[in-house]
Design brief:
alpha/beta, D-amino Acid Aminotransferase, Chain A, domain 1, two-stranded antiparallel ribbon
């Protein structure tokens, strides 16, 4: 649990320039937040005795809400002190663990799909992990770690990823097609990079999925495909014999560079690449 008298709008900047202003208490999960820890936070915030008593109760209640609702984060900002020494959570926000919503119906019932990115909502329907960004290179990758590495490599090559998209372990034709549609729904996308490392899958299966997906989805932007792992030679042969206008690459660095070049290399991209 962290707190600061400096306010929470630029907490990262405060932590960098004035780390002493960040109050931190380590909570042992098996024991939970203790009242003495809550009092320690209240005193460090510079509150008087009367305010400390009320702040301690508020902090303990916040921890219980965090724990009982399976929250990922609970932030009170601002926490205000009134002229009559009341301590009030003037505003707060919470985020919750999606995997625990089944046992928190009161939280799940408050879900409002209209507040979500429609692409992310569509991805959830197909069990795809999708997060929209503001770049121009769409990414279709299997595995969250590889997806992050792919995004980093695109940045290193001078481009900007348009999304995070993890198709998971089963990169079937249907999933690849759905992923392509999601990526293409972003008007900013000028090229697509498919980066698959076949461990659980096989490259020949993935290649067939890419080919079938391309036959069902109208792709009007360059498509860069990089395969690695089990049966990679068979997968590359399928792509080569497909007759599709694909750009293939052997390494992630090569694939990222080709994706950036396929975007038409705007002046900004050329400067970044240089």
């Amino acid at each position: 649990m962290i707190a600061s008298k400096e306010g929470g709008m630029e907490i990262e900047e405060i932590a960098d320039k004035n780390p002493e202003a960040i109050i931190q208490v380590i909570v042992e999960p098996a024991v939970g937040l203790q009242s003495f820890q809550a009092r320690e936070i209240a005193f460090d915030l510079g509150l008087n005795i009367k305010q400390v008593q009320r702040a301690t109760q508020l902090i303990m209640n916040a921890y219980r809400a965090f724990r009982d609702c399976d929250a990922m984060m609970l932030e009170i900002n601002p926490l205000v002190v009134t002229n009559d020494d009341r301590v009030v959570a003037l505003d707060a926000k919470m985020s919750f663990d999606d995997n625990a919503l089944f046992r928190n119906n009161n939280v799940a019932d408050m879900h409002d799909p209209s507040q979500e990115d429609p692409r992310e909502a569509k991805a959830q329907e197909h069990n795809l992990n999708y997060i929209g960004l503001d770049g121009e290179i769409g990414c279709i990758v299997n595995g969250a770690g590889l997806a992050m590495a792919t995004m980093d490599m695109i940045k290193h090559a001078g481009g900007n990823p348009a999304n995070f998209l993890d198709v998971g372990g089963g990169a079937s034709p249907e999933r690849i097609a759905t992923a392509l549609k999601l990526v293409l729904s972003d008007e900013n996308v000028k090229a697509i990079l498919v980066n698959i490392f076949a461990g659980i899958n096989r490259c020949d299966w993935v290649a067939k999925g890419v080919v079938q997906a391309c036959e069902t989805v109208d792709i009007k932007v360059p498509l860069v495909v990089r395969l690695a792992g089990t049966n990679v030679d068979e997968g590359k042969k399928i792509l080569a014999e497909s007759g599709l206008d694909l750009i293939t690459a052997d390494t992630l660095a090569e694939a990222a560079q080709k994706a950036v070049e396929a975007c038409g290399a705007s002046p900004e991209l050329e400067a970044a690449s240089a």
